[in-house]
Amino acid sequence: MERTVTLVALFAALIAALGLIPQLTLAFGVPITAQSLGIMLCGTVLGSRRGFLAALLFVALVAVGLPLLSGGRGGLGLFTSPTAGFLIGFPIAAFATGYVMERLSTLNVGVAAGIAAVIGGVVVLYVFGIAGLAIVLDKTAPEAALLVKIFIPGDLIKAVLAGLITAALYRARPNSVLSRA
Length: 181
Hints:
- With 181 residues, the protein is mainly α.
- The chain is built from seven helices and two strands.
- Strand 1 (24-25) and strand 2 (31-32) form a beta hairpin.
- Helix 1 packs antiparallel against helix 2 (35-46), helix 2 (35-46) packs antiparallel against helix 3 (48-63) and helix 5 packs across helix 6.
- The longest helix is centred in the last third of the chain and has 28 residues, at 109-136.
- It is globular, with a radius of gyration of 15 Å.
């Protein structure tokens, strides 16, 4: 139990830290950050349940006003902003990433983590992000999807990084990759 609480808090902090680099906000109000890499790592390293809890803790801390998003943003107002869908989707994306990682237990850890990161950390997260953009910006789903296409190359790179980082961690400390425990 203590280990779980510590890891959940540590990975929530990792997501926050990854929001600091880089800080580039696009014209439609959604910033480019490395936070989705943190979401992917929550799932690939911690697994579905713990990954979900880490991302949920991060979202809760943002909701109570801690300035953990890029540009030092935090507070309930973010849940009506263009980033709302992505923010709401963080815990679900972390869960989905972990769930896929746990199901791909026969594959090489790095390959499984890369696949899981694409499915959970890109596809699932984009479903929420596109829905949020469509609602907040009063656009159709296809129009909102066109807005997020700029994120695809970077997010695919993050998925590869999640695979490489998870594989390296697994080689160095196999018991620390809880999605494989």
